Structures are given as structure tokens and as C-alpha cells.
Amino acid sequence: MNRHARPDFAVLGGGLCGRLVAWRLAGEGHRVALYERGDAAGTQAAAWVAAAMLAPLAEAASAELLITRLGASSLDSWPRVLAELPEPVFFQRNGTLVVWHHADRTEAPLFERRVRANAPAELLDGGFVALAGAQLGAAEPALAGRFNQGWLLPREGQLDNRQVLAALAAGLAERGVDTHWNTPVNEASLPEAGITIDCRGLGAKPVLPTLRGIRGEVARVHAPGLQLTRPVRLLHPRYPLYIAPKQNGLYVIGATEVEGEDMSPVSVRSALELLSAAFSVHPGFGEARILELNSQCRPTLPDHRPALFWDGARTLRVNGLYRHGYMIAPEVADEAVRFAAALLDGRIGDADAFAGWRREARWSELFPQDFAREPA
Ligand SMILES: Cc1cc2nc3c(=O)[nH]c(=O)nc-3n(C[C@H](O)[C@H](O)[C@H](O)COP(=O)(O)OP(=O)(O)OC[C@H]3O[C@@H](n4cnc5c(N)ncnc54)[C@H](O)[C@@H]3O)c2cc1C
Q1: pTM to 2 decimals?
Q2: From ligand 1's centre to the CA of 256, what distance in Å?
Q3: Do residues 130 and 68 share a domain?
Q4: Using CA atoms, how far apart are residues 293 and 257, in angstroms rounded to an integer?
Q5: CATH assignment at residue 264
Q6: N or C: which end of the chain has fewer CB within 10 A?
Q7: For ligand 1, atom 17, which residue shows the shortest CA distance?
Q8: CB 259: neighbour CB atoms within 10 A?
């Protein structure tokens, strides 16, 4: 791109959402500039810390139907996105295993009831398989004999978050996006562009005052001898936990969920809880090596839904991805890209046009009905 010409789009924030939106817009031939306060690796983003599980059914235990439907569609979209990126990304669709210790067995029917209430029927059909005894060991040999019962959610997936961020950065370069790493942008220093797309996550709080952070802590450990083949979720009344196996013996163990925008390092309590729970799933974690203990905050709107806010002029904000960013990003980014392109070419200019657009949108629930108003 000619760096001196005014870009069609300035994307603020180069975490997960900003990278994906900028890369998609550039792929449609637009001139795009991206501004990220942190580095090209993505270390300042919530996306850097995330476990990147793509688990709409397991998440249905706490997420509503819109989220699980976005997650189901995005699971199908990710392979297409990854196939177009210039670097390989670990992507797995080998299911989620849900287990519980005998003492916590009352958690199981609660989990099942919530999942069945919030998941789309097409995900549940054949996607929620009860396992008992030897069946569980056959499905996940590393856990043979350790749990009496469990559920296999065979269609769920996961990917490597840091590989996605790196591959998207390479994709931005390949598509000629004018990237400005280590460049914070605030309302007083907005870059020139046709349309501004604000994907700053929690960094957008000055303009989205109802946005809040929900702190999450994870451990990254190296346990090459363990051989879990898919993410495992442990039901527990106080310390629900997941263990997501990535490549080369790397495991992401998470995550706490604490109200508040505390970005300080992981607490001793959280480290003990996460690591003890992992050890209770498999004692082999006792010999694992702790590579990192990380904390970050999930950008969250009051209703825990993602949203696309149009300011009535030239700015679109994409935010509120909460704990589901990876799970829903392809669909949310698609909707944002379609809307942004319509803004650029003048198809949306007033409330009537917006209402018409919203009626026709694939994911109309992502748009607040009254575009000029933030969520209550
Ligand atoms: C512990 C934890 C575990 C998670 N696990 C999962 C999971 O398993 N599955 C899943 O789907 N999701 C998971 N998530 C959620 C996921 O990480 C987020 O939903 C996602 O990262 C949100 O994407 P985003 O682009 O909106 O925000 P971010 O990824 O936070 O990106 C925002 C970017 O904006 C930049 N920025 C901020 N302010 C400015 C500024 N003023 N100027 C320029 N740049 C700025 C930031 O540096 C950052 O790079 C997890 C999150 C956490 C914290």
C-alpha cells in the first residue's frame, strides 16, 4: 500500500480481532492501516494469554445461544481462514473431554442441563457422548482408570493462539497492510482514514465506559510424557479447570475468572488451584515444568455478548468478545468487515439505512438496536 495515501480503513488494536478484520479487509482489496500499542507478536493482547479452545458446546454451560451459534459457525470457518494464512497454525478438531472426580459428581447433571439448554440442536445431535469406565480410557488412554465417567464432545476444536497471531501478522504484511506496531492510539491522536474500526479490546474503555475486564490466569507447562490428545475440562464446584494440549508437550492450564481489571501477575492462590487441579487430573503434571504463569483481562460488556457499535458517522467498534474471542472471531470479523465495507461505500449513512442493514444482517443480534446508544 502507498503509505502516504489516506487508507480506507484505520484499524485500532492489533490483538485477535483487529488483525483478523484488517487482514480480511486487505484481502478484499482495501487500503488498510493497523495501529497496535504492543509488539507484532501480540504480547499486549488478551489473545496472547488465551487457551484458544473452540468449544461452543462446553461453553454452553455458561454462554447463551447466540454465542454457541457463532461458535459453531466459526469452527467451520477457521480451517478456511487458516488455509489462506502464509504460516502454519496448529488447529485440532478432536473434541473436548469433560470429566469430574467422584466427590464432585453433583456438578455433572448441572453441567449437562445447562449445555442442553444453551446449545443449538445441531451441535447436540451426536455431539454429546456419555462415556463410562473403559470407554473413557479408550477415548483418552492417558486418563484410563482415572475417571469413572465423562462426556466426549467430539466436534470441538482448539488452535495455537500465538501461532495464529504470528500467522496473521505475516498475512498482514503479505497483503500490504500498513502496520504500526508499538503505536498506541487514543481519541486525541486518531489516524486519518476513511473509516475507523476500533478493536482495542479493553483499551477502548474510554469510549465504551460500560466495558469491563474479567481477569483470567493461566499456566503454560511442558509435560512431554503425558500425551493428552484433546482439551480436558474438569468439573469442580470451586476450581473448574481446562487443560489444553498444544504441540510438542506444551499444555495450557486455565483459567481463573475474577471480576476486575487487575493485570498484576498470577496470585499464589490461583497458581496453587490451577496446578493442583491439573495434578488431580493426572499425577504426571507433578513432573511438568512451569514455563509461564500469565494473567490478562477479557474485554466484557454488561450482557457478556460481543457487539458491533456504529457511532452514526465513520467509526465502528468491535468489542465484548469476553472469554470467547477465538471461538467466535471468524463470524464476528466477517460481520464487521461486511458492515465496514458498506460504511465506506456509503450504503449506510443514517438510522434508516442502519435499521435496514440490521434486519438483513446474518448476525443481527451483534448490532445494538439503537446504534447510537451503548449497552446499558
Ligand atoms: C486467560 C484467558 C483465557 C482465554 N481462553 C480463551 C479460549 O480458550 N477460547 C476463546 O475463544 N477465547 C479465550 N479467551 C478470550 C480471548 O482471548 C478474547 O476474547 C480475545 O482476545 C478478544 O480479542 P480482542 O481483539 O477484542 O482483544 P485483545 O486480544 O485484547 O486485543 C486488543 C488489542 O488492542 C491493543 N490496544 C489496546 N489499547 C490500545 C491503544 N490505545 N492503541 C493501540 N492498541 C491498543 C492491545 O494491545 C491488544 O493487542 C481467553 C482470554 C483470557 C484472558
Answers
A1: 0.97
A2: 16
A3: yes
A4: 15
A5: 3.30.9.10
A6: C
A7: 47
A8: 10
Question: What pLDDT digit, counting tens, does each position of 10-58 carry?
Answer: 999 999 999 999 999 999 999 999 999 999 999 999 999 999 999 999 9
Is residue 2 domain-resident?
Answer: no
Residue whose CB lies within 8 A of the most ligand 1 atoms, among 20, 36, 220, for a mutation test = 36
Q: Name the band, by pLDDT with cuts 50, 70 and 90, for residue 370.
A: confident
Domain range for 248 is 54-160+212-300
Q: Is the CB of residue 12 below 6 angstroms from any atom belonging to ligand 1? A: yes
The total number of structural domains that make up the chain: 2
From the CB of 219, is ligand 1 less than 6 Å away? no
Taking residues 286-313, what's their average pLDDT?
A: 97
Q: Are residues 152 and 67 in the same domain?
A: yes
Same domain, 143 and 126: yes
- Which atom of ligand 1 sits closest to the CA of residue 324? 11
How many CB atoms are closer than 10 A to CB 51?
23
CA of 298 to the centre of ligand 1 (A): 6
- CA 42–ligand 1 middle distance (angstroms): 9
Ligand 1 centroid distance, CA of 174 (Å) = 23
